[in-house]
């Protein structure tokens, strides 16, 4: 960890020299006025990270209490455009979480895939009603269930809000048809999704047990809806993705709510019962988002969010997850660790579960004489306060704090993030809290 911090200090003096002139978008006119166009974007988020691993973690067979790794959190290409007056097309291709442990037992070259492929038709004169369909992240729960990852305030998104990620979806994307639009101060979306079976996610499904898991039998469509009231400026409405921060260029104050519902999505079976019980998956959330300029002369801005999430995956569902996990094994057993879903090694912690979560974040774009977004700084902090039934009343809180250095806005930025997360163990059959663990990450984002 000390070597990692020394490296960051060593490169800090050269940061201002990295600022560069604004680049033109890769945008091609399809008609004389440019109202019909086709555009390409490219994004890369590279991470250098040091992580305190969970107890018993192994990396390639060796016990490792700490890991330092380099990886690509996200590498993406978007292709989209307004190809007629009313028709919009959107594709996204790329890969995620690519580090030394990606497919370490299989084929590291199997990585990129289509994230999105959709077509949309605008039925109204403006944005009052659009209908579309295809493979899409469009969601009913929260803005962080469908985030624009190139514009987020914190270094990474609160992944728990993408409730079924890589379980019955393709990295949060589902085959869906939807309607969305903006009417006055209201912004709405309704989505009907056809989820993937749990058996196709590339992992061995957990055995039928007293705790709930996604059902291996049966198939039902998923209903989602999301409604926003916008007090001042309207949010961007080109793609279904929701902006993380407008960096003071808009006055956004919103309240919103949404839900996801799927009948008989989950199942469980009591140890002494011959019968299988099916349960509905039902999540709902209410939230508020603020992104406003504070001082127009000094070009400062505030970004803030708070949301309450009620997540119901059935009886005592709990899933561990670690973002771009730096490890690939553990010496932990069912006798001394929680027998939940997902790996308990590396940087993983109970990220998803039946219960409730409060998530909040705040970022402050520091004052500057510079009106552009060159050489600007934004410190931020976030907290995820989770209470899951399976943890027997223990809180499951994760905290992040960091700072963004905008070399040229979101096109070129560095982010330094410190995360403090919980750990849990089983001692003589009783769940106990372990020590809190840290990770520090330096991200370099390029976006055109």
The percent range for strand residues is over 45%
Kindly provide the name of the CATH class.
Mainly Beta
Order of strands in the sheet with most strands: 2-5-6-7-8-9-10-12-13-14-15-19-20-21-22-25
Secondary structure class reads mainly beta
Question: Based on CA inertia axes, which overall geometry fits?
Answer: globular
CATH superfamily: Porin
User: Any idea how many domains?
Assistant: 1
Continuous helix count: 1
Within the CATH hierarchy, at the fold level, what is the topology? Porin
SSE pattern, N- to C-terminal: HEEEEEEEEEEEEEEEEEEEEEEEEE
Estimate percent helicity: under 10%
What do the pLDDT scores average to? 93
Rounded Rg: 22 Å
Span of the ends, CA to CA: 32 Å
- The residue ranges in which pLDDT falls below 50 over 5 or more consecutive positions are 7-23
Largest sheet: 16 strands, antiparallel, barrel
How many extended strands?
A: 25
Task: Using the 3D structure, state the CATH architecture.
Answer: Beta Barrel
How would you summarize what this structure contains?
The chain is an all-beta fold. It is 2% helix and 51% strand.
Question: How would you describe this structure in keywords?
Answer:
Porin, 16-stranded antiparallel barrel, 1 helix, 3-stranded antiparallel beta sheet, 448 residues, signal
What does this structure look like?
- This protein has one domain (2-447): Porin, CATH 2.40.160.10.
- The protein has 448 residues and is an all-beta fold.
- The two termini are 32 Å apart.
- Mean pLDDT is 93; it is low at 7-23.
- The chain is built from one helix and 25 strands.
């Amino acid at each position: 960890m000390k070597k990692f911090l020394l490296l960051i200090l060593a490169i800090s003096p050269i940061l201002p020299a990295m600022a560069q002139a604004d680049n033109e978008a890769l945008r091609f006119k399809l008609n004389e006025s440019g109202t019909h166009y086709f555009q390409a974007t490219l994004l890369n988020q590279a991470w250098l990270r040091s992580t305190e691993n969970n107890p018993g973690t192994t990396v390639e067979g060796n016990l490792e209490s700490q890991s330092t790794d380099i990886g690509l959190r996200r590498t993406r290409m978007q292709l989209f455009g307004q190809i007629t007056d009313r028709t919009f097309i959107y594709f996204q291709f790329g890969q995620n979480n690519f580090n030394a442990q990606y497919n370490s037992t299989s084929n590291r070259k199997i990585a990129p895939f289509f994230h999105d492929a959709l077509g949309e038709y605008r039925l109204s004169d403006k944005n009052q009603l659009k209908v579309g369909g295809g493979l899409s992240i469009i969601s009913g729960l929260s803005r962080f269930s469908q985030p624009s990852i190139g514009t987020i305030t914190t270094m990474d998104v609160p992944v728990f809000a993408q409730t079924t990620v890589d379980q019955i979806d393709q990295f949060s994307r589902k085959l869906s048809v939807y309607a969305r639009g903006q009417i006055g101060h209201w912004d709405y979306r309704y989505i009907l999704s056809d989820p993937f079976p749990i058996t196709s996610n590339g992992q061995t499904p957990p055995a039928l047990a007293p705790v709930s898991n996604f059902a291996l039998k049966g198939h039902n469509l998923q209903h989602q809806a999301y409604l926003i009231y916008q007090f001042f400026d309207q949010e961007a409405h080109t793609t279904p993705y929701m902006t993380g921060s407008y960096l003071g260029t808009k006055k956004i104050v919103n309240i919103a709510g949404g839900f996801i519902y799927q009948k008989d999505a989950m199942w469980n079976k009591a140890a002494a019962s011959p019968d299988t019980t099916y349960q509905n998956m039902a999540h709902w959330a209410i939230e508020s988002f603020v992104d406003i300029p504070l001082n127009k002369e000094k070009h400062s801005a505030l970004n803030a969010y708070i949301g309450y999430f009620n997540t119901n995956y059935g009886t005592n569902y709990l899933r561990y997850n670690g973002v771009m996990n730096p490890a690939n094994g553990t010496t932990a057993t069912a006798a001394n660790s929680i027998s939940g879903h997902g790996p308990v090694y590396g940087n993983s912690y109970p990220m998803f579960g039946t219960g409730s979560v409060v998530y909040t974040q705040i970022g402050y774009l520091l004052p500057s004489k510079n009106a552009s977004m060159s050489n600007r700084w934004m410190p931020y902090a976030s907290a995820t306060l989770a209470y899951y039934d399976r943890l027997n009343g223990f809180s499951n809180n994760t905290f992040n704090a960091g700072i963004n250095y905008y070399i040229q806005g979101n096109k070129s930025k560095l982010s330094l993030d410190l995360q403090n997360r919980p750990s849990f163990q089983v001692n003589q059959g009783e769940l106990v809290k372990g020590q809190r663990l840290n990770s520090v990450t330096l991200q370099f984002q390029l976006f055109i």
